[in-house]
UniProtKB/TrEMBL annotation:
Domain of life of the native organism: Archaea
Pfam families per the UniProt record, alphabetical: MazE_antitoxin (PF04014)
Protein name: AbrB family transcriptional regulator
Residue ranges occupied by any SpoVT-AbrB domain in the UniProt entry: 2-47
Species of the source: Vulcanisaeta souniana JCM 11219
């Protein structure tokens, strides 16, 4: 059992953090399922870009747009 603070925060118990390998700064998704709150760890993909030359501003903006569209 955990207590909600006045800032609506809670502490994930150490045993659960260790089992799920949750570290400071990790992202968790929050979902509602009926009367349950579900926290899931989020795995972020770090794209690898192979460069065959210099990047233009249009190339960079395209990569940013692709990344933003994945989160929609």
């Amino acid at each position: 059992m955990v207590k909600v603070t006045r800032n609506y925060q809670e502490t994930i118990p150490a045993g659960i953090r260790e089992r799920l390998e949750i570290k400071v700064g990790d992202l968790l998704s929050v979902e509602i399922d009926g009367d349950r709150i579900i926290l899931r760890t989020v795995v972020q993909e770090i794209p690898i870009i192979r460069l065959d030359g210099e990047l233009t501003i249009n190339d960079i903006e395209g990569f940013i747009e692709e990344g933003l569209m994945k989160n929609v």
